Every structure is written in structure tokens, then in C-alpha cells.
């Protein structure tokens, strides 16, 4: 009987589908449409932006083990999220720094014997970025560019699939991409069923009581306004947005005000994001709109004031921002959309390091 049971188990296991392995050398098309050939499975990666560690952590159980070097921008701008990675993966403190997310040390990269470099699209578009790509490729290091910033709602899932293929983590990456696409589709389908216009919105980056204001345009996080069927009052500005004066905002009289910022009030009096307590986020958001520049707005008087982590525009967690916008701007049709539940599922199913803190906040508690 024991022998028969063993045979049955063996036959069952043999019948299960095997995880498809990526075959190297591998040629992929990156976010800029460049064809890149990767000779072997990458094991020593250079990250041109430290924020892309978040993407790796959603598809690999130990993303730090893949790093040959990385930029300090995530560590510098969001030390709390870095601390979470350090607690789980102490080896991150020994990973060499190769730049600050804007510049890159060519000497440092040459000494690290990397087998792949990953750059963000906003880096690769600059003259320095183009020089870095040329230098790395000349030294035999293939460069893949990923884009979680421009047209994020359409590009994020595909870029996660790209990373999954490059790193031989397709099963996990495709699962996250499907998860992402399903949630974006839910928002789009719901808005298509309710074509009546949503509210008008001002999204203000890093609010400062002393001066006004940097308004997001239709690109980056600004696209998350449009997907809800709402109107961005800065839609006439360049896609990346720009500085507007108080007269412009008063004339537009937005129904809703949304601020973006980072933990600890860096660049702003408003503190929100990784490791931030919701009470701190709400209190500092309230302070940010109490000054003379914003307190007279209808949106502020009616407490239709919200805030979220500015760096959603650099990571595939941006689906959480899309769901927060949907819930805030169109509560009549998105009452059941819960970004807290979505974050919980991401942490349980995908995240090598759980993401905690107040990544979004409403001035008026539910």
C-alpha cells in the first residue's frame, strides 16, 4: 500500500505543469523600444534609480541579493521605506552607491562587474542618461529601460512583465501584471457605465504655505484624475504640469484639492508616505491648507481635501493611487473600491518587504 501511495504521488507531481524557464541569451524590447540582448540570467544588477528596487521586490523574494550597485535616490528621499528593506535584508547597507538617481559614477560601475543595468525612463531621456547607456554597453553591460512614470496606467503592467522575463521571474511578474490590469479595467469599465462628469480637481505637488503652487498636468499622476472621469484644472499646462498662481486656481475654483508629498515633510509641510502615521499625515495636510493661499478655496472650505505619496509616480504601486482617486472623486460609483484592501493583498501575495504607512489620506476621516 505504501508503495502504491508513493507511485500515486509521483504520478500526480509529474502531471503538474512545470514553471517555464526563460532561455538565455534573451532579446527583449524595453520601454524605449530598444532591442536589448541579455547573455545569461542576471545576478549582478545596477539600478540607475533606487526606486526600482520596489518593482524588483514585487517579483523576487530577495531583490537585494540581485544588486551589484544602486542609486541613493530612494534612500535619500524616503528613508522609511529604505529602513524597511534594511530590516528584512541587512546586506543592503553593503551595496555600493553608483549615483544619486540623476548622475552616475562611471568609475564605480566599471569596478562592480555587473551583468545588467536597469534605468528609469526619465533617466534614459537625459543627455547624461544617454551617455551612461553608451558607456555601459561599451563595457559589455546590457541596459534595460523601464517606465512606471509616463502613461503609467497603460505601461506599468507591461514593464512588470518585461522585468519578469529579464529576471526569469515571469510567473510572479505576470501574476502582478494581471492583478494590476484587472483593477485598472474595473475603474475604466465603471466610468464607461457612468459617463457623467466627475468633479474638477487641483493636484498640488509639495504644498508650501509661503508660495503657490505646482499643479500636475495630464501626465504622470495627473492621468489618475482623468481615468475617474474627473477634470484636471491644469489640463491646459504641459503634460508634466507647472507652476500656477493663486489667481489661476481661484478662477478655476476646483471642487477637490489633492496634495502630494513625501515622508517627514521633505520639500513641504505635508508628511505622507512610507512609515508615516495616519494621524501625522492628516494633521500636516490640515496645516498645509490652512494658510492664506489655500484656505479660501471652496474645496478646502468643504473639506474635499486629500493627499498622497508623491513617489507613486516612480513605482508600480501606483494602482493604489488610482483606486484612492476613484474612491475620493467618484464615491457614488466607487464606494466599494478600497485601496487599503488592495495594499493588503499586494503585501500578502507579492511584496518581499511589506509596505506600511499612510500612503494616502483624507483630511476629513470617513
Give the total of domains. Answer: 2
CATH architecture of the largest domain: 3-Layer(aba) Sandwich
CA gyration radius, whole angstroms = 22 Å
Structural class: alpha/beta
Counting DSSP H or I runs of 4 or more residues, the number of helices is: 15
The CATH class of the largest domain is identified as Alpha Beta
What is the residue-averaged pLDDT? 92
What is the strand content?
Answer: 15-25%
Oligomer: single chain
Report the span from N to C terminus: 61 Å
Number of strands: 16
CATH homology superfamily name of the largest domain? Nitrogenase molybdenum iron protein domain
Description:
The chain has 366 residues and is α/β, with parallel strands linked by helices. The chain folds into 2 domains: 161 residues, 3-Layer(aba) Sandwich (Rossmann fold), CATH 3.40.50.1980; 164 residues, Nitrogenase molybdenum iron protein domain (Rossmann fold), CATH 3.40.50. It is 40% helix and 16% strand. The protein is built from 15 helices and 16 strands. The strands form 5 sheets. It has a 5-stranded parallel β-sheet, with helices on both faces. Strands 10-8-12-14-16 form a 5-stranded mixed β-sheet, sandwiched between helices. Strands 1-2 form a two-stranded antiparallel ribbon. Helix 8 runs antiparallel to helix 9, helix 9 runs parallel beside helix 14 and helix 14 packs antiparallel against helix 15. It is globular. It starts with a helix and ends with a strand. It comes from Shinella curvata. Keywords: Signal. It holds the Pfam family Peripla_BP_2. This is ABC transporter substrate-binding protein. InterPro entries: ABC_Transporter_SBP, ABC_transptr_periplasmic_BD.
Amino acid at each position: 500500500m505504501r508503495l502504491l501511495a508513493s507511485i500515486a504521488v509521483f504520478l500526480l507531481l509529474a502531471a503538474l505543469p512545470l514553471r517555464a524557464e526563460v532561455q538565455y541569451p534573451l532579446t527583449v524590447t524595453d520601454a524605449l523600444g530598444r532591442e536589448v540582448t541579455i547573455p545569461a540570467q542576471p545576478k549582478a544588477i545596477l539600478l540607475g534609480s533606487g526606486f526600482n528596487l520596489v518593482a524588483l521586490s514585487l517579483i523576487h523574494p530577495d531583490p537585494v541579493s540581485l544588486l551589484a550597485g544602486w542609486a541613493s535616490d530612494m534612500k535619500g528621499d524616503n528613508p522609511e521605506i529604505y529602513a524597511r528593506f534594511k530590516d528584512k535584508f541587512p546586506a543592503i547597507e553593503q551595496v555600493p552607491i553608483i549615483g544619486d538617481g540623476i548622475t552616475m559614477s562611471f568609475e564605480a560601475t566599471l569596478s562592480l562587474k555587473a551583468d545588467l543595468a536597469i534605468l528609469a525612463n526619465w533617466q534614459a531621456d537625459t543627455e547624461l542618461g544617454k551617455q551612461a547607456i553608451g558607456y555601459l554597453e561599451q563595457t559589455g553591460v546590457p541596459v534595460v529601460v523601464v517606465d512606471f512614470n509616463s502613461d503609467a496606467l497603460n505601461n506599468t503592467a507591461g514593464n512588470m512583465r518585461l522585468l519578469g522575463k529579464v529576471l526569469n521571474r515571469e510567473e510572479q511578474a505576470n501574476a502582478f501584471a494581471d492583478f494590476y490590469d484587472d483593477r485598472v479595467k474595473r475603474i475604466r469599465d465603471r466610468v464607461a457605465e457612468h459617463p457623467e462628469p466627475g468633479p474638477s480637481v487641483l493636484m498640488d505637488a509639495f504644498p508650501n504655505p509661503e508660495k503657490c503652487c505646482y499643479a500636475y498636468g495630464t501626465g504622470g499622476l495627473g492621468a489618475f484624475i482623468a481615468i475617474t472621469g474627473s477634470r484636471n484644472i491644469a489640463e491646459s499646462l504641459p503634460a508634466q504640469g507647472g507652476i500656477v498662481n493663486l489667481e489661476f486656481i481661484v478662477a478655476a475654483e476646483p471642487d477637490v484639492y489633492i496634495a502630494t508629498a513625501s515622508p517627514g515633510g521633505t520639500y513641504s509641510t505635508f508628511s505622507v508616505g512610507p512609515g508615516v502615521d495616519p494621524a501625522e499625515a492628516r494633521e500636516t495636510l490640515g496645516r498645509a491648507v490652512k494658510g492664506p493661499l489655500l484656505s479660501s478655496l471652496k474645496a478646502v472650505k468643504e473639506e474635499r481635501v486629500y493627499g498622497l505619496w508623491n513617489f507613486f509616480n516612480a513605482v508600480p504601486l501606483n494602482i493604489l493611487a488610482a483606486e484612492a482617486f476613484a474612491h475620493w472623486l467618484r464615491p457614488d460609483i466607487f464606494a466599494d473600491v478600497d485601496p487599503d484592501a488592495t495594499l493588503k493583498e499586494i503585501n500578502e501575495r507579492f511584496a518581499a518587504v511589506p509596505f506600511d504607512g499612510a500612503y494616502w489620506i483624507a483630511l476629513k476621516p470617513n
